Amino acid sequence: MAAPLPSIAILGAGSMGGAILQGLVRSGDASAITVTNRTAARAEALVGLDGVTSLSLEADGDANTAAAAAADIVLIGVKPVMVPDLLREIAPVLRPGTIIVSLAAGVTIATFASIVGEDVSVIRSMPNTPAVVGKAVTGLSAGPTASADELALVRRLFETCGAVIEVPESQIDALSTISGSGPAYFFLLVEELTEAARGKGFSDADARLMAEQTFIGAAALLDATGEDPAELRRRVTSPKGTTERAIAVLQGARLDGVFAEATDAALARAKEMAAGA
Fold it and tell me: I want to staple 124 with a disulfide (CB 3.0 to 4.6 A). Which of 27, 93, 114, 141 is the partner?
């Protein structure tokens, strides 16, 4: 059995930080977690989680520095625009050997390192929202001072929430256009299939049930069989049948080009964010 993870602080336990927190608590692998939030109400909502100390800046203006000073791994979960100010706030209290993990889109490892210094290892992460149910895909990119052991430790942390892919930082924004934004693409497809069912006369409840459970069931089948999705699609698509006719329409709409264009647009925006636009 692996040793418990060292002490962890999550500064800004909002949607993503909160999802990681839920995964850590569910796994039981973390012995001590301190989380901070801006409001007392948000902090109160996390009180009572096993092994978690929840602080609010509203009640204690030094909550971030107190949490960071005591932690071996510090996750930065605030909005990207707030990251530099937060790093300047906590940098003086970070102990040598602390690992800083970014959850912020578009903020480079170089930006982190320029503020926290060379005694602190920086690892950039890009998780997605299914972390809250333990089904995340998280990309990890290690900074130049992060050791293999430190990266392995952070990998363990994120594996409490799902799968992990290690990539060079040059690929982290591209990864975000697939797995980071990907849940939104999936939900959009569910919305559109639900609307198609409504258009064919089904009630709102039945349309939603059909669309949602069809996608959920198909994903479960893909997961359970380990088959290539193209092969599973072929098995559903009988020659000269109804599905074949529908697939022809979808392929005629050039979904490959649509997804390439959509992910390219997301990547362009990530580069704008990194440039401060």
Answer: 141
